[in-house]
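Researcher: I need the complex structure. Ligand is adenosine-5'-diphosphate. Inputs:
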Amino acid sequence: MSSYVMEAENLYKKYGDLEIIKGTSLKIKEGEKVAIVGKSGSGKSTLLNLLALLDRKDGGKIYYSGKDSDDFKDEEIVRLRKGVISFVFQNSLLFEDFSAKENILLTLSISGIGKKEAEERSESLLSLVGLKDRMNHRPRELSGGERQRVAIARAVSTSSSLIFFDEPTGSLDEEAKKSVEDLLFSSSLLEKKAALIVTHDKDLKDRADTAYLLRGGRLEKI
Ligand code: ADP
Ligand code: MG
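Model: Output:
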């Protein structure tokens, strides 16, 4: 068994004639927190989308738990999305007609968790992210930072072993940013989960186990 959650080798991606990712490789261990920084337009989101199998690569290999993703059938991709990987984006989409708690319950229900356990888990996660008194608020009744906390609680609620974050603090003010960062690194929230965090936030980069700079379509360890 591979101790890597995800391994990518020699990835390529182009849009038209524009080569964005040019032969980059990356391995993520169980529980490892990896940051990728880079200038705007350097291809960070493109790379994240490739790794998360949200977009099609033009070359290279991606393995999940040692299995070649090129051999994945539809149901394996579905299983990956339900229970192995999850996502937090800069402005994460929440279900607007549902409360914070229901947003997490829905996700847990999709991943097959029973009702009672889902109730307990969603309440304890929302408490952990500091939204104990906001569980029944709808997304529009929450601040940007609070919405991001719901998205993070939702992402960690399933059995996922790798969470992809694309600029998770990108649209937050300093105070909200700091508290989301503390949540990612100082709380028990991500304890056993690996994380790939794409960011241009230096503080976040400094707190990761491993950090890379994406430049010229390749990752350089920094
Ligand atoms: P970053 O996240 O680092 O800011 P992106 O990965 O979003 O950068 O974009 C990298 C480059 O690829 C940019 O020049 C962007 O214009 C281009 N790009 C991204 N998505 C597409 C697309 N769907 N079609 C064409 N070009 C794209
Ligand atoms: Mg981006």
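Model: Summary of the prediction. The chain is about 35% helix and 25% strand.
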